[in-house]
Each structure stands twice: as C-alpha cells, then as structure tokens.
Amino acid sequence: MDEKLEKIKQQLHSQNYKLTPQREATVRVLLEHEEDHLSAEDVYLLVKDKAPEIGLATVYRTLELLSELKIIHKMNFGDGVARYDLRDDNSEYHHHHLICNNCGTVDEIFEDLLVSAEEKVKNVYNFYITDHRLVFYGICSRCIDKVNVDDFK
C-alpha cells in the first residue's frame, strides 16, 4: 500500500498539488477498500475514523480532485450515487462490472471484452476512443439458484 500511496503522492506533486493529511487519509481509505465501490459518504465515514476533524466537503473535494487527475474513476451504476474506484495502472482502460439485480453486489471483470468493438468503432466511424465502460445487469452466481430469473425480465 505504501508504494501505491507514494505513486499517488507523486501524481499529485506533478500537477502542483500536495498530499495533505486529509487527502492522505482519503487515499488510504480508498487503498484499504480497493475492491469496494465506495460512495463519497462511505469514504467520509471511513475517513472520519482515521481523521475525526475532516469534513464531508473536504472528502468531496478530494474525491473530485483525484477524479480530475485520473487517479480514481467516478462511476454511477444507475442508482444515482457516485462511486469511486482506484485506476489500475496496468490497464489501458477501466475494468467492467457485473451488477446483481437481486442482492446489489458489484463484481468486476478485468479482461477487456471490447477489443473487436473498439476496432470497429475506430475503423467504421473514424472515432478515437479514449476510454470505455461496460456494465452488465443481471443475477449473480450467488443468487441464481435462489430466485426466479423470470421475475427480473
């Protein structure tokens, strides 16, 4: 985690920002919960444990800054709540998600499923793609045997 924190610190410095104690507390929460898709409120409640003096507005500003600097992704899964995810330095694009309509679980797909679609968009429409997102909604493997899938059609 310290290596990732140091890299984020360098990214901030390269854009003339400092890793303030409040920003560091926010980044540490994101690093500790990398597999979760935390909302700003979730981040705030977790940061508050580490830095009781921090305010919700500070967390929002920090998340917006990190998003603008492309250190994190800001996502919306259709529920009206912005969620945040650390960018993967080893991936050219953002990873994809599977969202269960029954339990609400969000699972991740790390392989790029859109390579051929991107090629077609590039060649047929002469469109340069800078990023993409793919979200599948359905019933997860944990719920599939517990529900009638016809109820979700």
Oligomer: single chain
The percent range for strand residues is 15-25%
Tell me the major beta sheet.
3 strands, antiparallel
Straight-line N-to-C gap: 42 Å
Q: What is the averaged pLDDT score?
A: 87
Strand order of the largest sheet: 1-3-2
Low-pLDDT ranges? none
Rg for CA atoms: 18 Å
The helix count comes to 5
List the helices and strands and how they pair.
Blueprint: H1 2-14, H2 21-32, E1 38-39, H3 40-50, H4 56-68, E2 72-76, E3 82-86, E4 96-100, E5 106-109, H5 115-125, E6 135-138
Parallel strand pairs: 4-6
Antiparallel strand pairs: 1-3, 2-3, 4-5
Helix pairs in contact: 2-3, 3-4
Folded structure, characterized:
This protein has 153 residues and is of the alpha+beta class. It is 39% helix and 16% strand. It has five helices and six strands, in the order ααβααββββαβ. The protein has helices spanning 2-14, 21-32, 40-50, 56-68, 115-125, and strands spanning 38-39, 72-76, 82-86, 96-100, 106-109, 135-138. The strands form two sheets. It has a three-stranded antiparallel β-sheet with strand order 1-3-2. A hairpin with a 5-residue loop joins strand 4 and strand 5. Helix 2 packs across helix 3 (40-50). The longest helix is centred in the N-terminal third of the chain and has 13 residues, at 2-14.
